[in-house]
Amino acid sequence: MKNNYLRMTICLLLTVSGLQAQVRVSSGKDGITLASAGGRYTFAPVFTILYNAADPGMALKPAGIKKVSYNVLSWKVKDSSKADLVQQKISAAVAGDGFDDSILRGKKEQRTRSILNAGESTELRASSIRSKGDTVFFSFPSPGGITFDAYVAMNTKPYPVLHFTFKPAKPGYYSIGYTGAPALSPEHAAALWQPMIWQEKRVPDAPYLTPAFMAPLPTTMVYDGKHTLGVMASPEHLPFQPLPTLPNSRFGIALRNGKGQLQPQLYAPIPGGYGSLMKSGDTFSFSMQLVAEPLDITHTYQKIAEDVFGFRDYRRNDIASLNTVLDNMTAYAMTHYAWFVDSLKGFAYSTDVPGAVKNVSSLNPLELALVRDDAEMFEKRAYPLMEYMLSREKFLFSLDSLQKIQNPSRRLKGPVAPISELGALYSVFGKENDFYLHLMQREYTSSRMRNLDVKESGGSWTNAMRLYKASGDKQYLDAAIQKAGQYLEQRVRRPQTDFSDPFSGGFFFWPAFTDRWIELSELYELTGDTAYLHAAVQGARNYTMFTWMSPGIPDSLVTVNKGGKAPMYWYLRSKGHAQMYYPEEKAPAWRLSETGLTPESSGTATGHRAIFMANYAPWILRIGYYAKDTFLINVAKAAVIGRYRSFPGYHINTERTTAYEKEDFPLHEHKAQSVNSFHYNHILPMASMLIDYLVTDAFVRSNGRINFPAEFIEGYAYLQNKMYGSQGGSFYTEKNVQLWMPSKLLRSDNVELNYISARKGNRLFLAFTNQSAQPVTTRVTFNPSLVKLSRQSNIRSFTGNEAMALLDSSFSITVPANGIAAIVVNEASPSVQFQEKILTATGDRGKDYAEIKTGNAKVMLFRLGSYGRRLFVFLEDDDSKWKSVRLHYTDAAGKTQQLVDDAYPFELTVPLEKAYAVQCRLTLEKAGGGMVESEKIIIGK
Predict the structure, then answer these.
(1) Most distant CA atoms of the chain, gap in Å
(2) CA–CA gap between residue 786 and residue 118 (Å, rounded)
């Protein structure tokens, strides 16, 4: 005996495969030793009790981590030496949806961000031990008259369970921390994880406590190079209902201890949180699981998700096929409810920045126009966004020069379009618009701030890759490979120890916290070098650790919209939005689950619990296929399938509801939306995400035999996807097959089938993917206005699935569980409209770019295949210099025409009937009076 504590060892010998436990009691060290695959890790029976006589004022506050926006738990303290939370001065630019002023701009107080300072601390160590069956019981001393007992159930699977019971002797606010897990010095750790932001080897700079509602899995972890260790709250302490929030969080998890070591810890309740106020004689009990896995952290994450919280391929379409969702979403995008401001060529961004507009990429509507053969989408969305992306300085445009929220720009000093977008536009239009390539080369040698306050350097390996794909110039491929090699060495193979990664683009959205795994997967596809694939897989697996894997999903129904009222998001309530009403109903828990989705960002994770913008899903699906990684594949499906019938708004936040499942959910005026926020610039990127998922799913299920080439949609933040429709691809044995997926092409009697469709001559190609775990036999009917069939029309299968003969424009088909059926319909005539014209090159290569010095005007000639040509003129000068602008130009007959713009932004568009040399000049009216004539230029010659 030493210090009145019993010296003992309880060894749990765990086999790697079944984790079968055997118990040995021997003299030696305090605690429970988990022995696994040659490793021995002692979990000591040591607890820490935190006490506060008065409410410690638990509150989330900005952590003050350099370069990172992140909120952490804090508590009021009287002792100024413990007040280690530095009150942050928050810029006026940090505002809008997801930013909570009560967190960011609360009154200045003495606060601690360290769980170790969150109350009077008493350490408890076991004083005696006894064994009974497979359970070991610990007894503890009773300082101050408290009662404390604990036991370990050793044969529970997959991990031993440590359970404690606590009875206070006096009233107050209590928290009991398990602080006996193995501890590693940071230099001996190969990797670590504390949600949401500490990954790789980024050690928390303080003993932060992550509350339960911010933990994708309820544990922190440390990896010593052989085993991953953790202390995990048992699932019953993280219930499915109600939706996890800070007020109902029953525990918190920590990683850094008072010595600066990495030691998984768990505190329950949270000081000042749910259940922490106790009276004398109250009983508080809690269970946790002791984790020692012979796996790295991401594979331990997977194992816990699957074995403890039941993660699997758990979703199916259930309410609508993705094709129906895509039809509804694109139709909604063309309504006034989608709030596109024609005069500003952008989607209203009033949820965050009143009066502003914001766009993501012109490639989203352009893809929709191409794939869906939709001229209206091109004219009303794609083409205006093409002009916007070439003229604006930033994605966020506001005419209000005093607006500071999210750092908008008022200037026409483009292109805001990233190099990848310029390259995609160059390729889509048959490489007949040389100004795109010239702009790419210019941007490659410069830097630009496109979104928020993040400065982007042009000369990156990713941009070199884009330039090579656009130009075919091998010097850019060589540069991409050389710079990517440096990136692998400096970023991928050296685990990050802080938040100074120069390649991150700013630490706010989740892609910044991992390596550039999406772009690495693209470089792998371009070069075939598996070094890039391995890096992409690791990055993708790290990214899955931002996806929710808890709480577990019960096999039950959940009552939602109680009293006929949909949940009301607090932010929109504060903005005066109206209550929404949907019928009270019961829905299966799995359909309401956030599992597979991520919060929005590090800075808004506290309010935006799970966003529907899962643009990562098609990428993870594709990389999972390359790596034969079923976890990645299942995460991808969980993020997209069976969640909505149309655009669902942005996020799951206050309560669980079926409101965003409804087809009419987005069909309301802005102030009538209150379940979640609507960022109207997200509608088209989400539609692109669905196309990407549909095509990628067919690629994966066909083992790569359905494969369509794609451009890259970069956008900003996490809004990356592949863009399809500009080039033909392969469909099993057929080459040069063109994706063609017009709205309502097919009608199916079963919602579990998604499909992609393509055309070649008088043949129509169809691939059906079954999203359910049961075989599906259904009848499929063609839309006769889109496909003309005849008596000679017939069906041939590529996959051996039996397809019945055509009968009155319909046929029956069977698709295996989670499988694919692919067919071709011969002697079918697709009614192709817009797609054929826009993709037909004309050979027109005349001058397509010029500048007019007066007014700092840029003149561009868009060549849009055989569909047409457009003359676009915009001025960098604003209304501080000019009151109005008059464009003089010659028409095809040589006659001078005029077009006037008398309001800023000054931009003019002229449709041109055919290829000819256009002479242009400007007449500008000064803001203070007087007229100025510009020089003449000729374009199109």
Answers:
(1) 105
(2) 67
